[in-house]
Every structure is written in structure tokens, then in C-alpha cells.
Request: fold
Amino acid sequence: LRTVPIRNEHGVVIGVAESLEENQSVSAWAKRQAKLEDYGCLDEMTGALSHSFIESLLQESLITFAHHNVPFGILLFQVDQIDSYRAKFGPGIVRAILRVVATTIENSLGPSDLVGYWSENRFVALLQECGESEVAQVAERLQKMVSDSKLQWWGEKLSITGAFGGAGSRPEDTLEILLERAEKSLMESVPGRRNCASLLVS
Reply:
């Protein structure tokens, strides 16, 4: 919605003109999501990219990095207390929480970045053209966005917490090595601490 003031010869506002314009970026994103869903590339429960599809994109990024030295990074996010929520509210709450997390991360990433559902309570984000030093900054931003998100569930307002770990691409990386570094980084965040983000740089 664009609003423009209409002024008289003395500069006094005497009215406004409004115009509605389609948000092309949102429209393009919605169309892309619909296509990916048709191709079976989305995880049905979370709405994020499926495990197999995000894994193939990670492999593709490694090939591009090896041939053209275009850096990228990955982030693992582990949702806290999934088992406790399931025990208290039933299995439906798990789907709701994962949907909120997937949507929040997706909306907080850059236009070329992607998020996929990795396992029971984990997501992986692919950060395109992102150097190792920048991965931690993205993790901190995403952690804040996720921790600020709330979920209304049968009259209760639930806060979603979790931990991020990340790693940037390196010349010797295979997908297994890259994920192992991100996993170690995540494990540094998880023990006894929630709403944390870290990056393994050793």
C-alpha cells in the first residue's frame, strides 16, 4: 500500500491518494513454494524443504565451492523440549512447533538462503555466498527471531527455544565433514543452555 499526500497551493494536506501494488517478491516466493510442493521437495509436516532435497542442495554447494570458490555456510537448529511438549499436549503440538520454527527461520533468512527439515527436532539452513566469519552473525540473528516467536495452544502461550550451531565451507570439506563441524558447534550450545548460537572455528 502506497500513500501520497495531496497538498493545496499553500502546502496544506487536503487529501491522500492510495494505491495497492502486488508484492512481487512474496508472489514469486509463493509460486516457487507451490512448484516445489508439486515436485515433492517439501516436507509435509513442517513445510520446509525435505531432507533429501536440502541434502542435494548442500552437495551442489560443495561442488560450486570446489570449482568456483563461492563460500557458503550451514546452520543446525535443534528445538528444545519436544518430548516434554509431546507428553503434556499430545503429538499435535510437535507439528505446530516445527511449523512455527520452519516459517520463522525461512522468513528470517536472506533471499537466496534455504531451510530444510533434517530430523525429528532439527532443521538445517543453507547460507549461500556466506563466509565462515558471517555464519555466526546469521545464527545470532536467527536465534533471536526464533526465541521471540510464540505459539498459542489451547489457551496457553508457549515460547519456543533451541540452539544453533554452524560451520562455514572449507577446501577439504565433504558433506560429512561439514555436518560434523556443525554438529560439534551445536553440541557446544546445547548442554545446559537454551537460546544459544555458536560457531566452531577450530
In short: The beta strands are 2-7, 13-19, 72-79, 114-119, 122-128, 150-153, 156-159, 162-168, 196-199. Residues 55 and 170 are 17 Å apart (CA to CA). The longest strand covers residues 72-79. Residues 51-68 form the longest helix (18 residues).
